[in-house]
């Protein structure tokens, strides 16, 4: 299987490792050391070699960091991981609610008389360090560049990944790499920049129409690149990974040559200080123009081929999900465990030869486990789906033509009315966002409240974003667009996002409903303003929503109509692709309400 149920969080291993780290801190004359989740590329997901945060603390979430001081070690996590971190770290580590409590504020509280806090300049973005230094001004606390102290004490640290790179076919990419390079180089020229430094692997994969497998579930290879305004690209990648020619515009170099090549750049250099490692910022100094990763926005706005591929991938993926849900409904409550659901779903996805990987560890949380937003079932936590439970099933696949991500919440036996009421509020929010039309120029922060409003009306909410960007056979979490309170990037046609409101009651149950949707130009309406361009969504995900969990009287007529229309379209699109038993299940699951 792509997914393992091995236990990776061992809280008891954290304390001795923390002792070893503190010994190195003393040798360096440091009062603290920062351990981020990130690698040198500042991406969300990291290779086993770079799992420093998990190795030290036991916390396996995809975001967060640790600040280890002489007498306290804070593990900073956002709202998605508040429940998870409690079970994964030993008492020697103190969970800190972040970003409500900033690193700078916490350091000032802990180090009253000042001190020196070390950090690896390759693992921290320049923007993060600049912000922290500003907040720490006049505190007596100094951030000090040092080599990585965790690497010193991690005796069996895995080797760097060296997996081969493959070409991404033009029929899926929709645009030749040479065209992308020339197009973006022209933008650099117009901005008065001689080059752009690109450190995010998914940006480089998109630009050069290649894919890799250095990080689990993400089809990327570790590398760096310099895009030059004259239409050339310098790619810095281990020679073992590349066995093909990338064309006359691309020169290939060893990764060790990257820093010297950056130092030799002249003129203004475009960077993204939010992801650029401090080590690179140090050599660029005042030549940096913080205009963002030049690939980020073009990559986010999918072309017609990428949208078509994603739509088709979702239909094939829906077959696997529907077959799994059909099987699950044929099992009696109390007879199936979470790992069986995960295994069955992966087996069904593997029937598709285009599947390259899953897009993340499948979340299959029943009962109280469903309240852990990013729950990963292990051999130790594997739980039985009991009568009255609701199961959160969040999963996805990496296909040659698209990346999928879908969540369905499923009734196990006879579910209580309280759970149904919460589910219906989540569904109302998901439907209302799906029906939304909005003016061009609005960002995620301007519209995400639509999906929360039914929960807010009941005094409820959830601690994650309403939606994230999704790549085209790339990262399942892709920027810069998001549906969140902090996202200021205007939504544009071609962007693919998730629409996934939820609700979580710790120790009891969790709920999430997720479809992927693509931004498109909205058709004009009679009586509308001719000069006011509008956008709306194209739904990509087509899998039934569990009608057994809906309190129908809580839905408005418009919401019922949307759900019935959606289920009719699900049946029309998926029925011809299913076997007899799954067809019968689908007919019942998509019956009008």
Structure, briefly:
It contains 19 helices and 28 strands. It has 593 residues and is an alpha+beta fold.
Explain this structure to me?
The protein is α+β, with helices and mostly antiparallel strands. It contains 19 helices and 28 strands. Strand 13 (269-271), helix 11 (278-284) and strand 14 form a beta-alpha-beta unit. The radius of gyration is 24 Å and the shape is globular.
Characterize the biggest β-sheet. Answer: 6 strands, mixed
Number of strand elements? 28
Mind telling me the CATH superfamily name of the largest domain?
A: Creatinase/methionine aminopeptidase superfamily
**Termini, distance in Å?**
38 Å
Class derived from helix and strand content: alpha+beta
The overall pLDDT, averaged over residues, is: 96
The coarse overall form would be globular
Number of domains: 3
Q: What's the helical proportion of residues?
A: 25-40%
Count the DSSP helices: 19
């Amino acid at each position: 299987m792509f997914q393992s149920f091995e236990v990776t969080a061992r809280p008891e291993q954290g304390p001795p490792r923390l002792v070893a780290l503190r010994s190195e801190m003393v040798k360096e004359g440091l009062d603290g050391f920062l351990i981020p989740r990130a690698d040198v590329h500042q991406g969300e997901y990291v290779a086993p070699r770079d799992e420093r945060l998990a190795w030290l603390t036991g916390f396996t979430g995809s975001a967060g960091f640790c600040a280890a001081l002489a007498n306290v070690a804070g593990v900073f996590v956002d709202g998605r991981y508040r429940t998870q971190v409690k079970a994964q770290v030993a008492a020697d580590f103190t969970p800190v609610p972040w970003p409500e409590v900033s690193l700078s504020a916490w350091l000032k509280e802990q180090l009253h008389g000042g001190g020196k806090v070390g950090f690896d300049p390759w693992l921290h973005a320049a923007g993060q360090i600049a912000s922290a230094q500003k907040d720490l001004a006049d505190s007596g606390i100094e951030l000090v560049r040092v080599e990585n102290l965790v690497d010193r004490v991690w005796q069996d640290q895995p080797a760097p990944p060296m997996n081969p790179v493959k070409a991404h076919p033009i029929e899926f990419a929709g645009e030749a790499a040479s065209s992308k390079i020339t197009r973006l180089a022209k933008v650099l020229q117009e901005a008065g920049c001689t080059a752009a430094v690109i450190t995010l692997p998914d940006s480089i994969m998109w630009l050069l129409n290649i894919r890799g497998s250095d990080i689990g579930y993400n089809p990327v290879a570790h590398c760096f690149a310099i895009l030059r305004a004259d239409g050339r690209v310098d790619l810095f990648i281990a020679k073992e990974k590349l066995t093909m020619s990338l064309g006359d515009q691309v020169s290939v170099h060893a990764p060790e040559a990257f820093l010297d090549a950056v130092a030799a750049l002249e003129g203004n250099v475009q960077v993204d200080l939010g992801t650029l490692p401090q080590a690179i910022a140090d050599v660029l100094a005042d030549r940096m123009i913080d205009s963002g990763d030049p690939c980020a926005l073009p990559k986010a706005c999918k072309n017609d081929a990428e949208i078509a591929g994603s739509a088709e991938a979702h239909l094939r993926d829906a077959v696997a999900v529907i077959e799994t849900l059909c099987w699950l409904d044929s099992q009696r409550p109390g007879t199936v465990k979470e790992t069986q659901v995960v295994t069955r779903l992966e087996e069904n996805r593997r029937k598709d030869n285009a599947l390259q990987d899953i897009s993340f560890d499948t979340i299959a949380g029943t009962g109280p486990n469903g309240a852990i937003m990013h729950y990963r079932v292990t051999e130790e936590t594997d739980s039985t789906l009991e009568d009255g439970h609701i199961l959160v099933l969040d999963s996805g696949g990496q296909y040659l033509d698209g990346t999928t991500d879908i969540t369905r919440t499923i009734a196990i036996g006879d579910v209580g009315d309280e759970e149904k009421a919460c589910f219906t509020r989540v569904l109302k929010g998901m439907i209302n966002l799906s029906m939304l039309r909005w003016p061009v120029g609005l960002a995620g922060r301007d519209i995400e409240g639509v999906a929360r409003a039914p929960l807010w009306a009941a005094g409820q909410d959830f601690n994650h974003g309403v939606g994230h960007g999704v790549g085209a056979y790339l990262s399942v979490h892709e920027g810069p667009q998001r549906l969140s309170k902090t996202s200021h990037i205007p939504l544009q046609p071609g962007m693919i996002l998730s629409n996934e409101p939820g609700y979580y009651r710790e120790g009891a149950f969790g709920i999430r409903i997720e479809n992927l949707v693509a931004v498109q130009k909205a058709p004009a309406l009679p009586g509308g303003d001719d000069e006011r361009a509008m956008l709306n969504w194209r739904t990509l995900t087509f899998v039934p929503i569990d009608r057994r969990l809906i309190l129908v009287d809580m839905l408005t007529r418009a919401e019922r109509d949307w759900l019935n229309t959606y289920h009719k379209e699900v049946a029309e699109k998926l029925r011809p692709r299913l076997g007899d038993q799954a067809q019968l299940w689908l007919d019942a699951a998509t019956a009008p309400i």
